[in-house]
Design brief:
Elements: H1 2-14, E1 17-21, H2 25-37, E2 41-45, H3 48-55, E3 62-66, H4 74-83, E4 90-94, H5 99-108, E5 112-115, H6 120-135, E6 142-146, E7 149-152, E8 157-160, E9 163-165, H7 169-180, E10 186-187, H8 188-193, H9 200-214, E11 224-227, E12 231-234, E13 238-241
Parallel strand pairs: 1-2, 1-3, 3-4, 4-5
Antiparallel strand pairs: 6-7, 6-13, 7-8, 8-9, 10-12, 11-12
Length: 243
């Protein structure tokens, strides 16, 4: 009996911890109950300020973030986290669900965007996909060098001169796909169909964000180039298995 309780406690301590940030008490309670019922640990708060207080003492595996909140909104909070090099996956929720609003959410640094109202099962699938993406590792270790940058494809780590460059989980996945096809065009359709983003337009947003990090002049890219009529290609100097 005691062994079973210990086993359950260990399983819970190893479960992903999700921070829910939404000013709607009903939605907070629904999400906390639903996700807890599927094995996740949850913490629910009403404001960005409360979220910051909790994040000072604890690292979360994923944030579910409402856009429209009193005080600081979700867009501002997500952008501030990314400026601070916090790469925790963010699933943004909003009643504002047209293309322009989704693009704003993605540009602010969210990894996924779900409109309200939503089906709990769809949210669960998105949570699982984000956590799987975070944990996934490509089979085989491969380093790709382009200019002063080195990208380790199995870990998604990008560095320049030994200094690590922060990437979101979505940016890592996109760069992995481009790195494995280095020197070859990867279509927008392939990038969007892979589940990394929702649309071809969102692909362009992510590519622009990557260029801001790896190009000295993002408007005239050297490493991540557009292939007219096809998509994008990563121009690599070297791709080799790690020793």
């Amino acid at each position: 009996m005691g062994g079973a309780r210990c086993a359950r406690a260990t399983e819970m301590s190893d479960a992903a911890h999700v921070l829910i940030v939404d000013d709607d008490r009903r939605i907070r309670a629904l999400l906390a109950s639903f996700l807890s019922g599927h094995g996740y640990r949850t913490t629910a708060v009403a404001t960005a300020r409360e979220a910051r207080d909790h994040m000072r003492g604890l690292a979360y595996d994923l944030i579910i973030l409402d856009v429209m909140m009193p005080g600081e909104n979700g867009i501002s909070f997500a952008a501030d986290l990314r400026r601070g090099s916090n790469g925790v996956p963010i699933l943004m929720l909003s009643a504002l669900s047209d293309a322009g609003d989704r693009i704003k959410g993605l540009a602010a640094g969210s990894d996924d965007y779900l409109g309200k109202p939503f089906e709990p099962e769809e949210l669960l699938l998105r949570v699982r996909n984000l956590l799987r993406r975070l944990e996934s590792r490509q089979q085989g270790s491969m380093n790709v060098r382009f200019g002063e940058f080195i990208f380790v494809a199995d870990t998604g780590e990008l560095s320049r001169g030994g200094e690590r460059i922060r990437l979101t989980s979505r940016e890592k996945d996109m760069l992995k796909l481009l790195a494995h096809q280095a020197g070859k065009p990867v279509t927008r359709g392939a990038l969007s169909a892979s589940g990394l983003v929702e649309s071809a337009r969102a692909v362009d947003v992510q590519i622009n964000r990557l260029r801001q990090k790896i190009e000295s002049d993002p408007s005239n890219p050297v490493h991540l180039q557009t292939v007219r009529g096809e998509g994008y290609t990563l121009i690599a100097d070297m791709a080799a298995g790690a020793a």
